[in-house]
Amino acid sequence: MTKTTPSSAPAGNGKKKNLLPILGTVAAVAAVFFGVKGYLYEGTDDAYVEAHALMLAPRIGGTVTQVLVKENQPVTMGQVLAQLDDQDYATAKNQVLGDQNSVQAELVQAGNDLQRIKKLFEDQAVSKADLDAAQAKYGNLINRLKADQAKVAQADLNLGYTRIVAPTDGTIAKKSVEVGMVVPPGQALFGFVSSKERWVEANFK
To answer: DSSP strand E in 42-121: where?
Structure first.
């Protein structure tokens, strides 16, 4: 009786079966690679830089005597951009300083008088009405001095406001002022772009 030996499977089928897992692994790695690449490298057609922009205006009115910058000029924080006529504001400050100094002198004298009258009152040499009047005068002068000090502080601020300065480092984007112009409070003189904070705006693909 003749024995039949089973024929072996073609060699090519075994090789194909071995290649399938390898090809699957390569495909998976490629998918991960391009997925990560797409995550890290977004494309964009219209990216642009934005920054804070504002208009600079005087807090007080006056005549412009100096314009010290031009458009597209970089500036630093505190740099004077324009100057208003400060003569009237300097005169006003000197006047309130004079008033303050006068009240201070009166206050010193009233304090000395009050101390003297207190002693006389203790010795029963003056009446209670005299003591009350001296105390009232001294108190009124203290209130006047405080009011004058507030006026001096405001006058000092106004004098400083005659200088229009850069609030931060930045660039003069627009200039709308010339020497000789009479400007009211709040009129925009400069368009200013701060260099302190900038960021990128983009529409990703």
So the answer is: 48-56, 62-67, 74-75, 80-84
Which residues face 156 on adjacent strands? none
Helix, strand, coil % (nearest 5) of the chain?
A: 50, 25, 30
Q: For residue 159, what pLDDT is reported?
A: 97
Q: Which of 200, 176, 193, 165 is nearest to 72 (CA)?
A: 193
**pLDDT at position 90:** 97
* Distance separating alpha carbons of residues 52 and 81, to the nearest angstrom: 18
Q: Which domains does the chain have, with CATH numbers?
A: 48-85+162-205 (2.40.50.100), 86-161 (1.10.287.470)
Q: Is the pLDDT of residue 5 over 70?
A: no
* Residue carrying the six token digits 């904070």: 197
For the question of whether the overall pTM of this predicted structure is more than 0.90, the answer is no
